Amino acid sequence: MAKRSRKKASGRPVRRKMARSANSGWMKVLGASGALLALAVVLAVWAWRPGVPPLVHPRAADDALPVMADPVSFADTLSQLSRPLLVGLGVPERVIRIDRTPEELGSTVRWELKSDVPGALPLAVCNLELSRLARRLGGEVISATEDRTGRRLSMRIGMKGSGTNLVTLTSNPKLPRGTGRIAVIVDDFGYQDRGLIEGFYQLKQTVTLSIFPGQEQTAHTAMKAHEHGHGIMVHLPMEPIDYPRRDPGEGAIFVDASGEEIHRLTRSALASVPLATGVNNHMGSRATQDERVMRAVLEETRSLGFFFVDSRTSAQSVAFDTAQSMGIRSARNDRFLDLKEEDASIERALRALAKEARIRGTAIGIGHAKRVTLQVLKRVLPELEREGFTFVRADEAVR
């Protein structure tokens, strides 16, 4: 196969600045057919669900959910993670009750969870998410039954055929569902003047700043974001389909790089952003379609305990699926917020993102470190907060 014309190693064109525009090619693909777009939205609702907070600090090397070694550790871990999972789906925390089963009963069941569920939240969705969590921990749903009215779900979950957790969920039409959680990631930090940087980290609502490695303002931006309680990610440059017309910048991951070089570049990038706990791709519409490339990137991501967010600059990206298969806490971008740098367009995108959060429990949107984006965030985020939406860091939205 003929290779694309690009100089290697020292012959590669010098990239002095990071390219600062988002890849929107995938939007054109999705926009080709209204019917396909509608189908994609429906599938996305079922394919992506809100994440579960980690058991340990997100920088720990074993942060990916491990397969439990025995029924006792499985039962305890499932019990610990079930509450935030249900809260993420919109169940008010106050109605969730988890009790330890008395040991004198001699039962293999260690924990029993009972909760009302908002009428707007299908019990089938709760069943699906609890089943996924059990499988990720190495267990299974042994039985799941609904009563005749379809308003009560009883689940027996366990490991190796032994039931360790009982879950009873009752649909309550009078119980309001939580409005939803929104994770706003702001890309492309690292080179801006400090006045603009300050505007973002002074936002009252929680956001996550994704920062280019090795730039003049990289460390300053990360430290200030941390001081103000915002999330911090590494914005990792990757090869776009239309390279060299658009250059991802120095240190970018290219698809014809060796596995060793990809590991080295990724490791260097992740180490260069202080206090970062996650990574997402900058550009990368070509690189994220290549499983070999993504697996090498994600091996370094996993070794440092980072989470991963697929920016979805390509509709054919395999990045999220690969991360999930490797046990890495991960998610996909649901919507770019500022592809059009106009107040009205950005506000519409934010409100569309809020609708997705209302339906699915959690939604992730990506904007960029631009003044117009900042001004809209300052105005619209407080409005959405007053409507009941909760703003979370990206590490709280992955699963």
Might you state the CATH topology name of the largest domain?
TIM Barrel
Question: What Rg, in angstroms, do the CA atoms define?
Answer: 22 Å
C-alpha geometry: globular
Q: What structural class do helix, strand and pairing data support?
A: alpha/beta
CATH superfamily of the largest domain: Glycoside hydrolase/deacetylase
Query: Biggest sheet, in brief?
Result: 9 strands, parallel
* CA distance, first residue to last residue: 38 Å
Please tell me the overall pLDDT. Answer: 86
The CATH class designation of the largest domain is Alpha Beta
Task: Kindly state the number of beta strands.
Answer: 14
The helix/strand series, from N terminus to C terminus, equals: HHHEEHEEEEHEHEHEHEHEEHEHE
Number of helices: 11
The proportion of strand residues reads: 15-25%
Give helix % range: 25-40%
